[in-house]
Amino acid sequence: MKKVLIITYYWPPAGGPGVQRWLKFVKYLPQFGIEPIVFIPKNPNYPIQDESLNREVSNQLTIIKRPILEPYKVSKLFSKSDTKTMSSGIIEDVEKQKSMQKLMLYVRGNYFIPDARILWVNPSIKFLQTYLQKHNIQNVITTGPPHSLHLIGKGLKEKIKNLKWIADFRDPWVNIDYHSQLKLNDNAKQKHKELEDSVLNEADQIIVTSFKTAEEFRQKTNQPIEVITNGYDETENLDIDLSEAFSLVHVGSLLSQRNPENLWKVLQEFLEENKHLRQFLELHFVGKVSQTVLNSIEAYGLKDYVYLDGYLPHLDAIKAQKSAQLLLLIEANNPVKSGIIPGKLFEYLMAKRPILAVGPTAWDVQKIIEETQSGTTFNYQDKKSLKQELQKAFQEFLQGKLCISSKHIEAYSRKSLTHKLSKLI
């Protein structure tokens, strides 16, 4: 059986979408003749934890843990709340940032390049060079973000002859949207570009999760690039009753930039025009929600319809999706985000409930939703058509006919995607 070392930062008990991708790949790789070995930090700083995911880790799996020096743990001494907020991905708009958060963002952006896990790179290269040679492992996969982990693969590639290195990008690097909030100076921006260029051109194989990212990277490298999206796990397909409310459910983080005011405005107008809706409407959020978004929802008179669950264990989040009347998928109104396909989209596909997606123009998500006939996609200017869709959905809900007949979702099962990955190893 061929062996592959997978270098990842996020692993159970980490919660959130970052851990799901490689947890599932590792689960299914042995079925395709590949033995995964996982390398993770011994003492990571996980802003979200989900102990239930530990149940999916096989007792037969070899896991290597090595200490990591976490700057976020040091920053907690100065501002615990700001550190937790930043490390979980919630960065408020510039005008709402406190002085301490502005300072922390500047330090993070300009002194820890490409990210706060850079201090783990050199110790990991030193340890893994010996480990790989001792155990005759000739295949390595790095997954980012954090993109500093790709520098571990780069270092190992330079030191070990005939090593095959695959770099997996769950998100873009230089063109990721939050770079604009990190207060990067010109030197830091240039350093990011140089590091990204070196990884893209030295890795033997690039994997990306979206079509737009593949297009972007093909302008920067001649190395082979494969799109392997995130997916859903068939073993999690539960039989759950639908909500009796007209429930619009969003699962995952709603950052301040993901604030579709057109949706809140449409719902406000709909409530004013249709008093019957007031008896049934629920806005159900599972995960972290930015205060900016909550303030916007309240400004449109929707506060009484909001239900906040916070982060739920993965299985409970799936139950919430399966019980939804409509599933909300929201992305920022930013062209850079057109190449982001949230991992929750694929679990939404498995839930087989109508998806109502609001995001940037020419969003990769639209291609998948249309291909699978699983819902409708709108941009931030589609107020009239969005309202019509909600009115239609509510009438179907009242008649007990709100449903979809999605197609071709099997290609996005975790097992199918792992088979695709196995051919690259």
Question: How would you portray this structure in words?
Answer:
- Keywords: Transferase.
- One of its GO terms (molecular function) is transferase activity.
- This is Glycosyl transferase family 1.
- The protein is an alpha/beta fold.
- The protein has 2 domains: 2-228, Glycogen Phosphorylase B (Rossmann fold); 234-407, Glycogen Phosphorylase B (Rossmann fold), CATH 3.40.50.
- It has 15 helices and 13 strands.
- The longest helix has 17 residues, at 186-202.
Overview features:
Rossmann fold; 425 residues; 13 strands; alpha/beta; transferase activity; 16% strand; six-stranded parallel β-sheet; seven-stranded parallel β-sheet; 15 helices; 2 domains; Glycosyl transferase family 1
State the CATH topology of the largest domain.
Rossmann fold
Termini gap: 12 Å
Q: What's the number of domains?
A: 2
What is the CATH architecture assignment of the largest domain? 3-Layer(aba) Sandwich
Low-pLDDT ranges: 75-95
The first-level CATH class of the largest domain is given as: Alpha Beta
> Helical proportion?
25-40%
Estimate what percentage of residues fall within beta strands.
15-25%
- Overall SS class: alpha/beta
Q: What would you give as the CATH superfamily of the largest domain? A: Glycogen Phosphorylase B
Strand order of the largest sheet: 3-2-1-4-5-6-7
Q: Quick one: biggest sheet?
A: 7 strands, parallel
Oligomer classification = single chain
> From the alpha-carbon coordinates, what is the Rg to the nearest angstrom?
22 Å
Mean of the pLDDT scores?
Answer: 91
Give the overall shape, derived from the CA principal axes. Answer: globular
Count of discrete alpha- or pi-helical segments spanning 4 or more residues: 15
Q: Which series of helices and strands comes N to C?
A: EHEEHHHHEHEHEHEEHEHEHEHEHEHH
The total beta strand count reads 13
Protein name: Glycosyl transferase family 1
GO molecular function, one term: transferase activity
Keywords: Transferase
Organism: Psychroflexus salis
